[in-house]
């Protein structure tokens, strides 16, 4: 997904590059910029708004709500998935090897996210189509990955999901 996919249907571009209150300049991103690159710019923006431009014309505005909605569309909702977090040295990181380890457990990898860990390692979070992640955990360990957490595919209640989305929205509004 790109920046143009996260344009708020409720916000219109404000003329002359000013924010909705008319005081602060609104930063602008290219319409084709990936959402993963846009998120940090949105968080760094003092108004928590970004203009989306295609060449010289402004197409719209991304705000925290529209970014949250776009990110939510990027992640497919599944009831039958577990989360597994592994740590590894940067030289040992291989998404294809992690996928092979998951597939050796007769499971399907749905998503994979990686981020630097505090100790110079890479933290990889994997969503797999298993209600009980133990077979995938054993397989990842056989492949030499350090499993730091595994959460079974228990569907949280509607209230828990609503609370988590509210917490994320509060974070984006900070």
Computed CA radius of gyration, to the nearest angstrom = 19 Å
User: Approximately how much beta-strand content do the residues carry?
Assistant: 25-35%
Residues in helices, as a percent range: 25-40%
Total count of strands = 7
The structural class is: alpha+beta
What does it look like?
By secondary structure, the chain is of the alpha+beta class. 32% of the residues lie in helices and 26% in strands. The protein has helices at residues 35-44, 64-74, 95-103, 134-142, 158-173, and strands at residues 27-30, 49-54, 57-63, 82-88, 109-116, 122-128, 146-151. The strands form 2 sheets. A 4-stranded antiparallel beta sheet has the order 5-6-4-7, with helices on one face. Strand 5 (109-116) and strand 6 form a beta hairpin.
Please summarize what this structure is.
The chain has 174 residues and is an alpha+beta fold.
Question: Can you lay out the helices and strands and say which pair or pack?
Answer:
Blueprint: E1 27-30, H1 35-44, E2 49-54, E3 57-63, H2 64-74, E4 82-88, H3 95-103, E5 109-116, E6 122-128, H4 134-142, E7 146-151, H5 158-173
Parallel strand pairs: 1-2
Antiparallel strand pairs: 2-3, 4-6, 4-7, 5-6
Helix pairs in contact: 1-2, 3-4
